[in-house]
Write a structure and sequence with these properties.
Blueprint lengths: L2 E7 L12 E7 L5 E9 L3 H6 L15 E8 L11 E7 L3 E4 L5 E2 L16 H14 L6 E4 L5 H12 L3 E6 L2 H9 L5 E4 L5 H8 L4 E6 L3 H8 L2 E9 L17 H7 L2 E4 L9 H13 L7 E5 L4 H10 L5 E5 L2
Parallel strand pairs: 8-9, 8-11, 9-10, 11-12, 12-13, 14-15
Antiparallel strand pairs: 1-2, 3-4, 3-6, 3-15, 4-5, 5-7
Helix pairs in contact: 2-3, 2-8
The protein binds NADPH dihydro-nicotinamide-adenine-dinucleotide phosphate.
The site of NADPH dihydro-nicotinamide-adenine-dinucleotide phosphate has 29 residues, from helix 2 and helix 3.
Length: 327
């Protein structure tokens, strides 16, 4: 049997995942398909939901290989691909594999390093681009508040908002993240939500209320933002970082807060916006080249580091797009 090292789920995590929930094993390499080797594996918060069967893309059970979006190099020409092509696809956390041709997508040559196809110009970038341009639609001078603002989604939302002329306030959970948001991403204001009194800081930075809130976390941070919505506010509900590691249903924000502000609240699912990807790639790359949009990557080296790197992400200890560099 042709086999290759891979990462499998050993047992369902209880609470915050630990590295022992995963194991290194071997998986068979299929005999047909596009032969590839992994370059970068994307670690994403939604994977935690898959481990509990709470994500729309389905359950990963003990014994199953871990899978996520991956950037790969084509090893053998065929199926319309040439050896050396850089591609992306949903793939197991595995060194070598053959993938069904229909699940393999070329990575535009302009996207370099190729890891960006998993971050600021990948799925997180598309989430941010759709969230800002389709859901929030900022006008110059409006106040935009973003949670998990130093992550690939939040940082891109915040900077696209700034480029559109909004007054942008980011929330993040470490000194290093807050400094980066102020000095590199050039946000107007930053709140260290773990150190500051969140409600006092929001009152200080948003005296006229919040026109747009992009929520990546849910819970009390969402509640505090909703309490301060300005008339006609828009809220994009994108993620629930504060809930992924728990089975307890949340104490949700009071719908009365939405009614009082006549706010428009919309759920964001990136898969609805795939048609926007080419426009997003061109637009975000242009902003990076112009020096208007910064990004950060948090790369751990080696397939065997993937379990602990994923656990760091779910503890909130990553700073930037969480990736594993396989080779
Ligand atoms: P990040 O790299 O930003 O990682 C998550 C961050 O969340 C952490 O680093 C941490 O930063 C913050 N955080 C806040 N509260 C908690 C908590 N209780 N436990 C752990 N971390 C916490 O992730 P992404 O940018 O990739 O994703 C951001 C959000 O967007 C996620 O909720 C994700 O699920 C969602 N998403 C939704 C999509 C959709 O289609 N709706 C598509 C893509 C992503 P800090 O130190 O600042 O607290």
């Amino acid at each position: 049997m042709d086999a290759s090292p891979c990462v499998k789920l050993k047992r369902q995590p209880q609470g915050v995942p630990v590295a022992d929930d995963f194991e290194i094993g071997e998986a068979e390499v299929a005999s047909t398909g596009v032969e590839c080797r992994s370059l970068y594996i994307s670690l994403d918060p939604y994977l935690r939901g898959r481990l509990s069967g709470r994500h729309l893309t389905g359950l990963i059970s003990p014994g199953d290989p871990m899978t996520s979006e991956t950037v790969l190099e084509v090893v053998e020409s065929g199926h319309g691909f040439v050896a050396g092509d850089i591609v992306r696809g949903h793939a197991p956390w595995q060194h070598r594999m053959r993938l069904p041709p229909e699940s393999v997508h070329p990575v535009d040559r302009q996207i370099r390093p190729a890891s960006l196809a998993l971050g600021v110009v990948g799925m997180p970038g598309l989430t941010a681009f759709a969230g800002v341009h389709r859901l929030l639609q900022p006008s110059s001078g409006e106040t935009l508040l973003v949670s998990a603002a130093a992550g690939p989604v939040g940082a891109t939302v915040a900077q696209l908002g700034r480029i559109a002329g909004a007054h942008v306030i980011g929330m993040a959970g470490s000194d290093e993240k807050c400094r980066w948001l102020r000095e590199v991403a050039k946000l107007d204001a930053v709140i260290h939500y773990k150190r500051e009194d969140l409600r006092e800081s929001l009152d200080c930075h948003c005296p006229e209320g919040i026109d747009m809130y992009f929520d990546n976390v849910g819970g009390d941070v969402l509640q505090a933002a909703m309490e301060r919505l300005a008339l006609g506010a828009r809220v994009a509900l994108c993620g629930l970082m504060s809930q992924y590691n728990t089975d307890e249903p949340p104490a949700g924000p009071n719908p009365g807060l939405i009614i009082r502000a006549r706010a428009i609240v919309r759920g964001l699912v990136v898969y609805d916006h795939e048609a926007l990807r080419p426009e997003m790639e061109v637009s975000i790359q242009r902003e990076i080249e112009n020096g208007h949009l910064a990004y950060k990557e948090d790369i751990s080296e080696g397939l065997e580091t993937a379990p602990e790197a994923f656990c760091r992400l779910m503890r909130g200890d990553n700073f930037g797009k969480a990736l594993v560099k396989v080779v």
